[in-house]
């Protein structure tokens, strides 16, 4: 499951490093209500790990062209900021992996579908922005996930070869992107369960990042 040699670990952000997907769900539902619409779970789940432009297309297809995307995004941001005004919670195992990084020579980077200003703000609020050697956001690439560009760019910034990178994801589009980049991909499910397709693209599906830290520690010992 862990490449040998392991040159880099590349993380998704929301739902993988940051325990924010449930907060986004609440914010999205509230933003739709403010326009007199009702969000449905199957649409919300399809937005996880999806770049903003593709997500907007899905929203318009569902709600119609009269749906005000600018108002929706502004309301989402306001609700989300209110929900995590004090801090952004980390998912289990993040601290263990960051501590492990200090003991072994492994580069770590983040590949996220979130725009750079928001990604930097959330990682800083969580206290882990400076813990990574590279950050690639939706702002930095031409094509978002499921295209592999973001993962390939992180690997290049880290000076790592894709086959020797471990990619960690919680979304289906993220898994597709990392696998297309030629990386050993592990899914850590959050709100989305793996499908048969996603399982086949992964080298493994694990309960938490704590399990990943244990496997890396054992491999590097």
TrEMBL record:
It comes from the Bacteria. Pfam families: Hydrolase. SUPFAM superfamilies: HAD-like. PANTHER family: 2-DEOXYGLUCOSE-6-PHOSPHATE PHOSPHATASE 2 (PTHR18901), PSEUDOURIDINE-5'-PHOSPHATASE (PTHR18901:SF38). This is HAD family phosphatase. It comes from Muricoccus nepalensis.
């Amino acid at each position: 499951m862990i490449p040998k040699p392991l040159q880099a670990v590349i993380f998704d952000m929301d739902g993988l490093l940051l325990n924010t997907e449930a907060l986004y769900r609440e914010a999205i539902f509230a933003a739709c209500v403010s326009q007199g619409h009702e969000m449905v779970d199957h649409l919300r789940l399809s937005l996880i790990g999806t770049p903003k432009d593709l997500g907007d297309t899905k929203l318009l297809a569902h709600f119609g062209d009269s749906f005000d995307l600018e108002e929706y995004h502004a309301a989402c941001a306001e609700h989300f900021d209110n929900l995590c005004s004090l801090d952004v919670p980390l998912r289990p195992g993040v601290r263990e992996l960051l501590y492990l990084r200090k003991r072994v020579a492994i580069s770590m980077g983040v590949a996220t579908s979130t725009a750079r200003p928001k990604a930097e703000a959330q990682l800083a609020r969580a206290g882990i922005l400076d813990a990574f050697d590279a950050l690639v956001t939706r702002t930095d690439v031409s094509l978002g996930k499921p295209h592999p560009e973001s993962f390939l760019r992180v690997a290049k910034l880290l000076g790592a070869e894709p086959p020797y990178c471990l990619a960690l994801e919680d979304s289906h589009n993220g898994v597709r992107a990392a696998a297309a980049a030629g990386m050993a991909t592990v899914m850590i499910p959050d709100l989305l369960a793996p499908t048969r397709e996603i399982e086949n693209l992964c080298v493994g599906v694990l309960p938490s990042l704590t399990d990943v830290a244990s496997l890396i520690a054992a491999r590097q010992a």
